[in-house]
Specification:
By secondary structure, the chain is mostly helical. The chain folds into two domains: 31-80, Homeodomain-like (Arc Repressor Mutant, subunit A, Orthogonal Bundle), CATH 1.10.10.60; 91-239, Tetracycline Repressor, domain 2 (Orthogonal Bundle). The chain has helices at 7-12, 16-24, 35-55, 62-69, 73-79, 83-114, 118-121, 128-149, 151-164, 168-191, 197-217, 224-238. Helix 2 packs antiparallel against helix 10 and helix 3 (35-55) packs across helix 6. It is elongated and about 65 Å long.
Length: 247
């Protein structure tokens, strides 16, 4: 007889989509062996992301990156053969950091579900609306922080996703990045007995991307009450509930 597995461990184990994203993150620049060299390489990549967020891809030049990173010009050409390799590796770093940030949010949601009675996780279960309201509060706080305090990362994301439309080398990473995002939501929605976890996970990702784009257009002016109401409504619909009044 097989051993019973802990549901909490199952919920927090790595999804195939997350594994695919991790495996898709392959740096193309010069490999480093020393800590000092690796720190300099990361410094160059982080500077490249800042330029991409501020000036777009047209602003990424070896000289501009060296100035932003405060390293000798020769360092950028030493670690990266050309601009395309530098851009590609900078977005690999972005995807890696974005994955870690998103995993932290999913871990928080899963911890809440781990301590929720099984009957509440079932559709139409007792205290279902209270659970949905609690998830709405957590999600609203997370999104508000993303929209107001992580503008640079959000701009870099927009640049990355647009560049992936033109660069086949980045397209695969972009697909894996989005699928890992959707897969984490799909897993959570399955635990919540959502009527359509696949469709609803895609819906939530699309709504979030749209809200993020709007926040960039509005220069980070985010109405917390309006955001809370939107999140509560979307989560309520995804869970098969009526509109939930945020608490």
């Amino acid at each position: 007889m097989g051993q019973l597995q802990n549901p909490a461990l199952q919920a927090n184990s790595e999804l195939p989509e997350n594994r695919l994203l991790r495996q898709s993150i392959r740096y193309r620049g010069r490999k480093t062996l020393r800590v000092k060299s690796e720190l300099r390489r990361l410094k160059i990549l982080e500077a490249t992301l800042r330029i991409a967020a501020r000036d777009g891809l047209r602003g990424i030049k070896h000289r501009a990156v060296a100035r932003e990173a405060k390293v000798p010009l020769a360092a950028t050409t030493y670690y990266f053969r050309d601009i395309h390799e530098l851009i590609s590796d900078s977005f690999m770093l972005f995807a890696e950091k974005a994955r870690d940030n998103l995993d932290g949010f999913y871990d928080t949601i899963n911890l809440v579900l781990d301590t929720t009675p099984a009957e509440t996780l079932r559709r139409n279960g007792p205290q279902r609306k209270e659970l949905a309201a609690r998830l709405s509060v957590i999600s609203t706080a997370y999104l508000h922080e993303q929209f107001t305090k992580r503008r640079q990362q959000m701009l870099a994301e927009q640049v990355f996703l647009m560049e992936a439309l033109r660069d086949d080398r980045l397209a695969g990473l972009a697909r894996s990045y989005r699928e890992a995002w959707t897969a984490g939501l799909r897993q959570i929605l399955k635990r919540l007995d959502s009527p359509s976890p696949e469709r609803d996970a895609t819906l939530l990702v699309n709504v979030t991307l749209g809200m993020g784009y709007d926040s960039l257009l509005n220069d980070q002016r985010v109405d917390y009450a309006a955001l809370s109401e939107t999140v509560a409504r979307v989560i309520g619909l995804a869970l098969g509930e009526q509109k939930i009044v945020p608490v």
